[in-house]
Design goal:
about 240 residues, alpha/beta, Rossmann fold, two-stranded parallel ribbon, 9 strands
Length: about 240
Protein backbone atom coordinates (compact mmCIF):
# COMPACT_ATOMS: atom_id res chain seq x y z
CA UNK A 1 0.00 0.00 0.00
CA UNK A 2 1.25 3.46 -0.90
CA UNK A 3 0.34 5.00 2.46
CA UNK A 4 -2.53 6.95 3.97
CA UNK A 5 -3.98 10.04 2.31
CA UNK A 6 -6.37 12.28 4.22
CA UNK A 7 -8.49 14.08 1.63
CA UNK A 8 -10.38 17.02 3.10
CA UNK A 9 -13.30 17.53 0.76
CA UNK A 10 -13.35 13.99 -0.64
CA UNK A 11 -17.03 14.30 -1.59
CA UNK A 12 -16.36 17.32 -3.82
CA UNK A 13 -15.83 17.39 -7.57
CA UNK A 14 -12.03 17.05 -7.54
CA UNK A 15 -11.99 15.11 -4.27
CA UNK A 16 -14.08 12.29 -5.73
CA UNK A 17 -11.91 12.04 -8.83
CA UNK A 18 -8.72 12.11 -6.75
CA UNK A 19 -9.92 9.45 -4.29
CA UNK A 20 -10.80 7.12 -7.15
CA UNK A 21 -7.29 7.46 -8.61
CA UNK A 22 -5.57 7.05 -5.25
CA UNK A 23 -7.50 3.92 -4.34
CA UNK A 24 -6.54 2.40 -7.69
CA UNK A 25 -2.91 3.29 -6.89
CA UNK A 26 -3.11 1.41 -3.59
CA UNK A 27 -3.52 4.30 -1.14
CA UNK A 28 -5.63 4.07 1.96
CA UNK A 29 -7.92 7.08 1.57
CA UNK A 30 -9.63 8.75 4.52
CA UNK A 31 -11.95 11.48 3.32
CA UNK A 32 -14.09 14.15 4.91
CA UNK A 33 -17.65 15.22 4.22
CA UNK A 34 -20.23 17.18 6.17
CA UNK A 35 -23.03 14.85 5.04
CA UNK A 36 -23.84 11.44 6.51
CA UNK A 37 -25.65 10.60 3.27
CA UNK A 38 -22.52 11.29 1.21
CA UNK A 39 -20.47 9.30 3.71
CA UNK A 40 -22.27 6.10 2.77
CA UNK A 41 -21.59 6.68 -0.93
CA UNK A 42 -17.94 7.33 -0.13
CA UNK A 43 -17.72 4.08 1.83
CA UNK A 44 -19.09 2.16 -1.15
CA UNK A 45 -16.38 3.76 -3.29
CA UNK A 46 -13.65 2.50 -0.98
CA UNK A 47 -13.05 5.70 1.01
CA UNK A 48 -13.00 5.66 4.80
CA UNK A 49 -15.45 8.52 5.45
CA UNK A 50 -15.24 10.99 8.31
CA UNK A 51 -18.22 13.27 8.86
CA UNK A 52 -16.65 16.47 10.17
CA UNK A 53 -16.89 20.23 9.71
CA UNK A 54 -13.55 21.92 9.05
CA UNK A 55 -14.59 24.80 11.30
CA UNK A 56 -14.79 22.46 14.31
CA UNK A 57 -11.08 22.41 15.10
CA UNK A 58 -11.12 19.83 17.90
CA UNK A 59 -13.16 17.31 15.89
CA UNK A 60 -10.90 17.81 12.89
CA UNK A 61 -7.81 17.22 15.03
CA UNK A 62 -9.29 13.97 16.33
CA UNK A 63 -10.10 12.82 12.81
CA UNK A 64 -6.56 13.38 11.58
CA UNK A 65 -4.99 11.86 14.68
CA UNK A 66 -7.02 8.68 14.15
CA UNK A 67 -6.15 8.55 10.44
CA UNK A 68 -2.41 9.22 11.01
CA UNK A 69 -1.94 10.22 7.36
CA UNK A 70 1.29 10.50 5.43
CA UNK A 71 -0.19 13.21 3.22
CA UNK A 72 -3.07 15.65 3.69
CA UNK A 73 -4.88 17.00 0.63
CA UNK A 74 -6.98 20.16 0.98
CA UNK A 75 -9.77 20.06 -1.63
CA UNK A 76 -12.35 21.97 0.39
CA UNK A 77 -14.71 24.36 -1.37
CA UNK A 78 -18.33 25.41 -0.97
CA UNK A 79 -19.67 26.40 -4.40
CA UNK A 80 -23.17 26.23 -5.94
CA UNK A 81 -23.82 23.71 -8.73
CA UNK A 82 -22.70 25.05 -12.08
CA UNK A 83 -21.44 28.20 -10.33
CA UNK A 84 -25.01 29.52 -10.28
CA UNK A 85 -24.55 33.33 -10.53
CA UNK A 86 -27.56 33.98 -8.29
CA UNK A 87 -25.80 32.16 -5.45
CA UNK A 88 -22.18 32.94 -6.24
CA UNK A 89 -21.89 36.08 -4.11
CA UNK A 90 -22.76 34.23 -0.92
CA UNK A 91 -20.56 31.32 -1.96
CA UNK A 92 -17.54 33.60 -2.30
CA UNK A 93 -17.88 34.56 1.36
CA UNK A 94 -18.15 30.93 2.42
CA UNK A 95 -15.20 29.92 0.28
CA UNK A 96 -13.08 32.74 1.66
CA UNK A 97 -13.83 31.54 5.19
CA UNK A 98 -12.87 27.97 4.26
CA UNK A 99 -9.62 29.20 2.76
CA UNK A 100 -8.80 31.30 5.80
CA UNK A 101 -10.21 29.70 8.95
CA UNK A 102 -10.67 26.22 7.51
CA UNK A 103 -7.10 26.08 6.23
CA UNK A 104 -5.81 27.25 9.60
CA UNK A 105 -7.62 24.39 11.35
CA UNK A 106 -6.48 21.85 8.78
CA UNK A 107 -2.82 22.90 9.00
CA UNK A 108 -2.82 22.63 12.80
CA UNK A 109 -4.47 19.21 12.66
CA UNK A 110 -2.07 17.96 9.96
CA UNK A 111 0.99 19.03 11.94
CA UNK A 112 -0.31 17.47 15.15
CA UNK A 113 -1.10 14.22 13.32
CA UNK A 114 2.47 13.96 12.04
CA UNK A 115 1.74 14.36 8.33
CA UNK A 116 4.74 15.08 6.14
CA UNK A 117 3.17 16.80 3.14
CA UNK A 118 0.19 19.08 2.52
CA UNK A 119 -1.24 19.60 -0.97
CA UNK A 120 -3.82 22.38 -1.23
CA UNK A 121 -6.25 23.47 -3.92
CA UNK A 122 -6.07 27.14 -4.90
CA UNK A 123 -7.12 28.98 -8.09
CA UNK A 124 -5.33 30.28 -11.16
CA UNK A 125 -7.83 33.08 -11.82
CA UNK A 126 -7.13 35.43 -8.90
CA UNK A 127 -4.17 37.17 -10.49
CA UNK A 128 -4.07 40.96 -10.70
CA UNK A 129 -4.21 42.47 -14.19
CA UNK A 130 -0.92 42.16 -16.01
CA UNK A 131 0.86 40.56 -18.92
CA UNK A 132 0.01 36.96 -19.75
CA UNK A 133 0.67 34.15 -19.30
CA UNK A 134 0.62 34.70 -15.54
CA UNK A 135 3.48 33.08 -13.68
CA UNK A 136 3.39 31.85 -10.10
CA UNK A 137 5.28 34.89 -8.84
CA UNK A 138 2.74 37.38 -10.23
CA UNK A 139 0.65 39.24 -7.61
CA UNK A 140 -2.88 38.24 -6.67
CA UNK A 141 -5.67 40.80 -7.02
CA UNK A 142 -6.19 41.22 -3.26
CA UNK A 143 -7.20 44.89 -3.62
CA UNK A 144 -9.97 44.20 -6.12
CA UNK A 145 -13.41 45.55 -5.16
CA UNK A 146 -16.38 43.38 -4.29
CA UNK A 147 -16.48 39.63 -4.58
CA UNK A 148 -13.29 39.35 -6.62
CA UNK A 149 -11.32 40.91 -3.77
CA UNK A 150 -13.01 38.69 -1.19
CA UNK A 151 -12.00 35.62 -3.19
CA UNK A 152 -8.44 36.79 -3.82
CA UNK A 153 -7.84 37.59 -0.16
CA UNK A 154 -9.13 34.14 0.81
CA UNK A 155 -6.79 32.57 -1.74
CA UNK A 156 -3.85 34.61 -0.43
CA UNK A 157 -4.58 33.49 3.14
CA UNK A 158 -4.74 29.82 2.16
CA UNK A 159 -1.51 29.98 0.21
CA UNK A 160 0.37 31.87 2.91
CA UNK A 161 -0.67 29.39 5.59
CA UNK A 162 0.29 26.35 3.52
CA UNK A 163 3.67 27.78 2.56
CA UNK A 164 4.49 28.85 6.12
CA UNK A 165 3.43 25.56 7.75
CA UNK A 166 6.15 23.20 9.08
CA UNK A 167 5.24 20.74 6.33
CA UNK A 168 6.15 20.11 2.71
CA UNK A 169 3.49 22.45 1.34
CA UNK A 170 2.42 22.47 -2.30
CA UNK A 171 -0.26 24.83 -3.59
CA UNK A 172 -2.03 23.95 -6.85
CA UNK A 173 -3.62 26.93 -8.58
CA UNK A 174 -6.41 25.26 -10.55
CA UNK A 175 -8.00 26.77 -13.62
CA UNK A 176 -11.77 26.99 -14.05
CA UNK A 177 -13.02 23.42 -13.82
CA UNK A 178 -15.01 21.49 -16.38
CA UNK A 179 -15.88 17.83 -16.74
CA UNK A 180 -17.80 15.35 -14.55
CA UNK A 181 -19.61 16.96 -11.63
CA UNK A 182 -18.49 20.51 -12.43
CA UNK A 183 -21.61 21.64 -14.27
CA UNK A 184 -19.60 22.34 -17.43
CA UNK A 185 -19.00 19.89 -20.27
CA UNK A 186 -16.57 22.21 -22.05
CA UNK A 187 -14.02 24.81 -20.91
CA UNK A 188 -16.08 27.66 -19.42
CA UNK A 189 -13.38 30.30 -19.92
CA UNK A 190 -9.71 30.71 -20.83
CA UNK A 191 -7.32 29.04 -18.40
CA UNK A 192 -9.72 26.12 -17.88
CA UNK A 193 -8.94 22.71 -16.39
CA UNK A 194 -10.56 19.30 -16.70
CA UNK A 195 -11.51 17.66 -13.40
CA UNK A 196 -9.43 14.56 -14.19
CA UNK A 197 -6.34 16.66 -14.90
CA UNK A 198 -6.88 18.55 -11.64
CA UNK A 199 -7.05 15.29 -9.69
CA UNK A 200 -3.96 14.00 -11.47
CA UNK A 201 -2.00 17.10 -10.47
CA UNK A 202 -2.88 16.50 -6.81
CA UNK A 203 -1.92 12.85 -7.15
CA UNK A 204 1.51 13.79 -8.50
CA UNK A 205 2.05 16.54 -5.91
CA UNK A 206 1.49 14.05 -3.10
CA UNK A 207 4.76 12.25 -3.81
CA UNK A 208 6.94 14.53 -5.94
CA UNK A 209 7.80 18.13 -6.64
CA UNK A 210 9.42 20.70 -4.42
CA UNK A 211 7.29 22.69 -1.95
CA UNK A 212 5.89 25.74 -3.68
CA UNK A 213 3.09 27.12 -5.83
CA UNK A 214 2.13 25.61 -9.20
CA UNK A 215 -0.20 26.82 -11.95
CA UNK A 216 -2.46 23.95 -13.02
CA UNK A 217 -4.49 24.83 -16.12
CA UNK A 218 -4.64 24.22 -19.84
CA UNK A 219 -1.83 25.70 -21.88
CA UNK A 220 -3.77 28.40 -23.75
CA UNK A 221 -1.65 31.43 -22.89
CA UNK A 222 -3.58 32.45 -19.76
CA UNK A 223 -1.20 31.03 -17.14
CA UNK A 224 2.29 29.59 -17.45
CA UNK A 225 2.42 25.87 -16.60
CA UNK A 226 6.11 25.23 -17.30
CA UNK A 227 6.85 24.65 -13.61
CA UNK A 228 4.12 22.02 -13.20
CA UNK A 229 5.24 20.20 -16.32
CA UNK A 230 8.89 20.24 -15.25
CA UNK A 231 8.70 19.51 -11.52
CA UNK A 232 5.54 17.42 -11.26
CA UNK A 233 5.57 15.78 -14.68
CA UNK A 234 1.99 17.00 -15.07
CA UNK A 235 0.11 16.96 -18.40
CA UNK A 236 -3.13 18.97 -18.78
CA UNK A 237 -4.34 16.39 -21.33
CA UNK A 238 -4.56 13.65 -18.67
CA UNK A 239 -7.95 11.90 -18.49
CA UNK A 240 -8.94 8.95 -16.31
CA UNK A 241 -9.41 5.68 -18.15
Amino acid sequence: MAGCAFVAGASGVVGRALARILIADGWRVVGTTRSAEKAEAMRRAGIEPVVVNVFFAAALQRALAEAAPDVVVHQLTDLPPGLDPTRLGEARERNARIRDEGTRNLVVAAVQAGAQRLVAQSVAFAYAEGSKPHREGDPLDVWAPGGAGVSARGVASLERQVMQAPLQGLVLRYGRLYGPGSGFDKPPAPGALHVDAAAHAARLAMTQGKPGIYNIAEDDGTVDIVKARRELGWDPAFRSA
